[in-house]
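Technical annex, item 7. During the second reporting period the consortium partners agreed on a shared format for inverse folding records so that results from different sites could be compared directly. Each record opens with the tokenized structure and is followed by the designed sequence. A conforming record, contributed by the partner at site C, is shown below for reference.
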């Protein structure tokens, strides 16, 4: 049955019964992130707003088990992308695809399609949706789910990834450099692989929109690059935004309330990192700790401790205070985060999120997920000064905060 080759979920009305057609309360769902998208459906030009918008378990019907991944996610596998538009089939062209790419993440191949209006879709099958001999693995399924979750969210929020080849190039380089480290933090598994691909894609789109600062001269004719870590900041902002289940769109234009969007939070955290270390542009910030034992982009303590009110306390203790927030703090502590920009930035942003939900005026514990600008400023106060009793009459803290607010609100120093 050729339909089963292109729609293993069994949702298509043309399905002949092998496998059985899906029925019941979920029969209307057409958001399985690995089935062929209907990009010509009625209701507007936006192809399948909900593509990828289902839980990981919803793809169980494809016969691909989503268990733990045993592959080595260090940068020893192959990474890259290839434009294989010349291999587009008539069926793919009829659907509306105009470009086709093979993307390889640590030796795992998936297919990415592009429509004429720039919408992207991923297939876990080597060779694409219609390939007669293409293979699907739990790893390629996890990658495709992550990509489609991100493509759907960015499409819904009107965020462009720009030139597709440039995006794919940056995506595979980012994965080559950071996927192994990330999997160590989240404990591996296909869920971790999906998380990485989702936030690496959203993070790239957000990084294109972040505030760009004027660069300054350093010693020996070298200039700063204040955008050097925009991708990392946007990635971790998107990741922690999901982990803490914050309510908000990718950009402020799509927000329906006064909480900060992912883009606004990323820009505010960039301003915070600027005040902490000039965004890690000085070698001294990496090679030597300051008087407070701090080092790195977010000036993380060289000697972590776990006592209440300590710098990493929120991230290490949240699992005791909040249901559903996974404990990643100890995983960071077990790594060489001081010499890894990706980890340093992830930990600094994670700690700030931790102080957000413990803030004096943010009612996270009662289910509130709409953090305002004021809430986020309190989070940064916590990051810098600890418990709220340390904030009162703290002139140094308020001077620190005034610089961060100025840089954020002026979109640069």
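Designed sequence (site C submission):
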């Amino acid at each position: 049955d050729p339909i089963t080759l292109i729609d293993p979920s069994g949702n298509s009305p043309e399905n002949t019964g092998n496998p059985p057609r899906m029925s019941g309360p979920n029969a209307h769902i057409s958001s399985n992130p690995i089935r062929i998208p209907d990009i010509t459906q009625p209701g507007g030009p936006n192809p399948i707003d909900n593509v990828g918008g289902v839980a990981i378990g919803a793809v169980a019907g494809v016969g691909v088990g989503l268990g733990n991944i045993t592959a080595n996610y260090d940068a020893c596998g192959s990474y890259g992308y290839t434009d294989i538009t010349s291999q587009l089939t008539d069926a793919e062209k009829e659907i509306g695809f105009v470009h086709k790419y093979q993307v390889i993440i640590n030796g795992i191949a998936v297919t990415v399609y592009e429509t004429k209006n720039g919408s992207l879709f991923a297939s876990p099958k080597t060779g694409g949706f219609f390939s007669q001999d293409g293979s699907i693995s739990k790893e390629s399924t996890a990658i495709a789910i992550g990509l489609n979750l991100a493509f759907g969210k960015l499409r819904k929020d009107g965020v462009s990834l720009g030139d597709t080849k440039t995006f794919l190039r940056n995506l595979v380089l980012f994965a080559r450099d950071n996927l192994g480290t990330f999997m160590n933090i989240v404990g591996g598994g296909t869920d971790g692989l999906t998380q990485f691909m989702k936030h690496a894609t959203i993070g790239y789109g957000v990084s294109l929109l972040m505030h760009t600062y004027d660069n300054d001269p350093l010693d020996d004719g070298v200039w700063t690059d204040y955008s050097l870590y925009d991708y990392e900041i946007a990635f971790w902002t998107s990741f922690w935004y999901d982990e803490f289940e914050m309510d908000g769109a990718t950009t402020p234009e799509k927000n329906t309330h006064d909480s900060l969007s992912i883009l606004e939070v990323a820009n505010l955290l960039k301003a915070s990192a600027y005040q902490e270390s000039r965004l890690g542009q000085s070698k001294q910030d990496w090679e030597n700790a300051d008087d407070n034992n701090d080092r790195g982009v977010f000036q993380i303590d060289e000697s972590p401790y776990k006592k209440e009110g300590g710098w990493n306390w929120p991230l290490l203790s949240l699992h005791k205070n909040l249901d559903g927030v996974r404990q990643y703090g100890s995983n960071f502590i077990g790594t060489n985060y001081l010499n890894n920009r990706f980890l340093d930035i992830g930990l600094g942003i994670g700690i700030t999120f931790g102080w957000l939900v413990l803030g004096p005026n943010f009612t996270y514990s009662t289910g509130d997920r709409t953090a305002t600008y004021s809430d986020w400023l309190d989070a940064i106060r916590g990051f810098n000064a600890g418990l709220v009793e340390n904030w009162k009459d703290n002139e140094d803290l308020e001077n620190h905060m005034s610089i961060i607010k100025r840089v954020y609100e002026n979109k640069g120093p």
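Residues 142 and 191 are 7 Å apart (CA to CA). The longest helix spans residues 164-186. All partners now use this format for quarterly exchanges.
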